[in-house]
Amino acid sequence: MWVFTQDEYGPAAGGGAQGIKLSTDGGVRWSDVTPPGLSVQGAKHWINGLFALNADDAWVWYGGLGAEAPQSVIATTDGGRKWRVLGPKPPSCALDFVSVSHGWCAAIGAAAGSESVTLYRTIDGARSWQVVSRTSPHSFSPAALPFGGDKNIEFTTANVGWAAFGTAAGVAPLYETENGGRRWIRRTVAVPPRDVGPPPQAGYGAMFAGQPTINGRFGAVGYTVDQRVGTRTIVYRTTDAGSDWSPVVPPGPGKPWLVDTLTARSWRLVYGNRILVTDDAGRTWHTITTNHTFPALFYSFGSPTPPVVVFPSDNIGWIVQQDPEASTNTLWRTTDGGHQWHQVDIPGT
């Protein structure tokens, strides 16, 4: 577990603490692996992001504040013992790597329900970048993503990536690339059942929650619908490697579940003190009652990014719980599949 901490109550001109922490034993012990010179905020030394690929390889970008402030990228290959400066980061984007060499940086700009996209790619670990796709109101690369709709772009291999959309009305689209982002293909997403489908009224819509998990022909991804009756979540499933997707409705009353797909067939849906579990792609389910009640994980569309729910295995799970009023996060861990959760203390938070 890698963690980026920052003091959000420091002096306006900087001076608050910031840092990078790493635990390799489930949060029992933490190492301070903050790059030299970046433990205090200020000037051109604000840490603005962290991407970790594994326990050894991670990238940090830092610079001034503001979307257009120049940013530098530094990286480690030994768990933060040593850091090396790689060069400038493309503007207004966050790093996403699938290996120590192959990564992307998607600059997504908002424009009243539509978003421009400039997609940068690196094949040398962030030392250099190339624009592979561009979408704007007036300029499009060949086979680029459409301008309309909110977008989240993530990659799963050196060639395969997904653009998951959110929309104010109707069924949100899903696009796939098979050549590293140069060409995007719209995949078929079936209309959800009537009782959970997004209504046509303005102000109510739907969005994909996370990136698809694909194993061979099979895959799954969470999908959330915002309705007059409240936010509800379903799961989309594919049996043809992502070309076509059909909805799976979780059992019981509709709730704003937060979905984690361990594999294409094993899913964990979290809400309150309940976890819905399926290991056969939604054909059968069972419920786990937890010892801790997590507050609403989706607040509403346009609210802060929901917390992270990750089960790297059947027994081990992590939840980052947000408190939007206090502007704080807490980290929780389970080792028995979700029955018992305990809060993990992180130095510097």
Explain this structure to me?
This protein is an all-beta fold. The chain has a domain at 203-349. It has no helices and 27 strands. It has strands spanning 2-6, 14-22, 31-32, 40-42, 46-52, 58-63, 71-76, 84-88, 94-97, 103-111, 114-122, 130-135, 150-155, 161-167, 174-177, 184-189, 206-215, 218-227, 230-238, 244-248, 258-261, 267-278, 286-294, 309-310, 317-323, 328-334, 342-344. The strands form 6 sheets. A 7-stranded mixed β-barrel has the order 14-15-16-20-19-18-17. Strands 1, 2, 3 and 4 form a 4-stranded antiparallel beta sheet that branches. A 4-stranded antiparallel beta sheet has the order 5-6-7-8, with no helix packed on it. 36% of the residues are buried. Mean pLDDT is 89; it is low at 299-304.
Topology overview:
Blueprint: E1 2-6, E2 14-22, E3 31-32, E4 40-42, E5 46-52, E6 58-63, E7 71-76, E8 84-88, E9 94-97, E10 103-111, E11 114-122, E12 130-135, E13 150-155, E14 161-167, E15 174-177, E16 184-189, E17 206-215, E18 218-227, E19 230-238, E20 244-248, E21 258-261, E22 267-278, E23 286-294, E24 309-310, E25 317-323, E26 328-334, E27 342-344
Parallel strand pairs: 16-20
Antiparallel strand pairs: 1-2, 2-3, 2-4, 5-6, 6-7, 7-8, 9-10, 10-11, 11-12, 13-14, 14-15, 14-17, 15-16, 17-18, 18-19, 19-20, 21-22, 22-23, 24-25, 25-26, 26-27
